[in-house]
What we know:
The chain is an alpha/beta fold. The chain contains 22 helices and 21 strands.
Amino acid sequence: MTEKEYFDSRLSSSDNEENFDVKALLSKYLKSWKLFLLFLLIFIGLAALALQFINTSYEVSSKILLKNETSNIDASGNNMVSNNPFSNSERVNNEIEVLTSVHLMRSVLDSLSLQCKVSTPETFSETELYGSDLPFKIVVDTLYPSAYDTSIKIKLEGKDSFSISEDFEGDLDAANSISSSYGYNRYNYGYKIEKPYGTFKIVPNEKSSVKSTEFLLEFRDIDEMAHDYVKKALSVYVINKDASVINIVLKEQNPQKGEDIINTLVEIYGIKVYQEKNAMALNNVKFIDERLNALSVELSEVEKNVAQFKTENELANVEFDANSFSEQEIDYSRKLTEAEIELKVLSAIDRNLRNGDNESTLNSLSVSSPNLVYLIDNYNRLQIERKSLQRTVPENNPRMIDIRDQLQQLKGNILGSLSTSRQSLRSTIGSIRSRSNQFAAKKQRIPSMQRQLLEISREQGIKENLFLYLLQKREEAALMVGVRQDNFTVIDKAITDFESKSPSKKLFMLVSLLLGLAVPVGIVHLKDGLNTKVADKKDVQKRISVPLIGEITHNASGKNLIEKGEESSRLAQDFRMMRMNMSFHLPKKKMQTILVTSAQEGEGKTFFSSNIGVALASSNSKVVILELDKHNPELMGALGAANSEIGISNYLSPGTRTININDLLVPVNNNDNLFAIGLGSEKVDGLESFNSVQMVQFMEQLRNDFDYIVIDSAPIGTLADTLALSKYSDCCVFMVRENYTHLDDLAILEEAKRNKKFKNPMVVFNDVTNN
């Protein structure tokens, strides 16, 4: 591979690193692979251990459908139609609140006797027993608060007996318990156990299949349990807002226990609804009975008022009586007319008889008295007979005399009867007129009486209708009493979803795996965030505008100088790359003098100066390396050359004018083209000596004698000597060491570039470990 090909490949690699940050990021993580492995093992181990203690819970669900047709039915069974469009959703929400009430859940837990927890002691955790797994059942009579702080150990002694021992955690005096003082006490099944913390019985469970003989019994506060179930485990919600289907979900460790809780919850909910409706119906029946009794009294009073009014006003039926009064008034008027006519007839008859008209007959047509009609008829017959005899016999005829005597006698009788009849007619006429006036007055009072009777009858009718309505409603309400009609239908009874295990072991392990990766990533980034030193070349490129001409890989060989035969090594290739990069950055000017510096000691100035000299000399160029770090002169030792008693300081000293530059040159590494000049034995005042005429002459002669001059100078962060040497250089190489150079030191170089303190500054990144 030629130098040009190697250089192109390095540039391509550099571009790829700039474009693919993921690669650099993964490289950063790979450097901390031990940290990742450690945390993965820790978190996976913790997850496996936690799964031994964490109990798995399942989702148990049930669905019920609220009946829309009974959404607005009262206690009597009437459907009260509502026009409120939100009535159904409001009712569903109300039922959800009832289902999630603590009181209802407490009834469920009490019904299932879940205030007692029976478990078996195990190595990692306690396993709660339920249902057929229970070896016995606890029948609680009374519990005191101290029971919740008492741990009871039960040991089965046989088929008929068991032993109890308590551990008290609260303030209960252990001396009050015989068991706590003398260990286990033996009891028979069904025996009423009285303790300071409560009274209870233990009865055997014939269906139990558990084989263990030792158990733990704990009493739990049922109110706290109800709160916990409602707030943490129970979820009731509407599946579809347009439907009345309610989904009831419960998270429970024991599937059978969860199914029993939900089924009992729905059952007790239905019983509660039935009891409320039944109580409402009974209250309605009671209310209606009270109202019927009061209304019966009121109705009786109204009926009495109607009867009294009709009695006082002699009314049976107002319309009928009004017609009757009119007819009777007409009848009395007719009778009055007839009586007056008859009276006039009788008066005429009386006048005729009294006026001496003894030959004419009398008119009895309008006469009503039978006796008078009889007398008048006899009188008229004798008159006719007398007139008939007058034509044939004389007046003194005995028969004529007898007729005259009879007529005279009949006349007296008729006059007497006329007097009597006239007197009777006058009385009759007065009576008729009186009765006629009475009926006329009643007829005038009919509208007023009709109005009064109508008011009384209206009140009577209202009370009668109300009484009949209440009787009907009482029967309807009575029919509702004792009749259970649920307002919901169970779509699905409680069923356990065994796929919904929580926590899922796979998910738990996955989370642990992610945590095992996330924590090291966080540590790596935290470390980077807290790091104040240069971590990679991006830190250099982000903070300064000085070009980076190359990187020096970490030297793991322990050798400080490239030797013959190592031209193909990675270290040699790095320096060859930097040699070419420097020439590319200064294409128009010959790069002859290279000033090497850094911010502080230990960043690789001497290492770079030595090896760049070797790299430059390998191209048949004549190279000299100057040791001008007066505080830490290490160049000669790094080059493997013997320290000479004379050096640059001796040359610059005023008392040694006879020293020749050739006397200062020390061959390096058996390379005919590479030489070094040490600092010397004299003390050097950097600013004064490096700015002297001798220094100028010294550098001019070196330029004439050598192709390249490499100056190993002091750090610019602490000394000003390097600034004095900058005027002799064609470029300045600033050394930056990975995880050694402080980020703040980069500002020194940026400030030097900005103020043009150095010619053509460049950066070399040293001791790179992530390549």
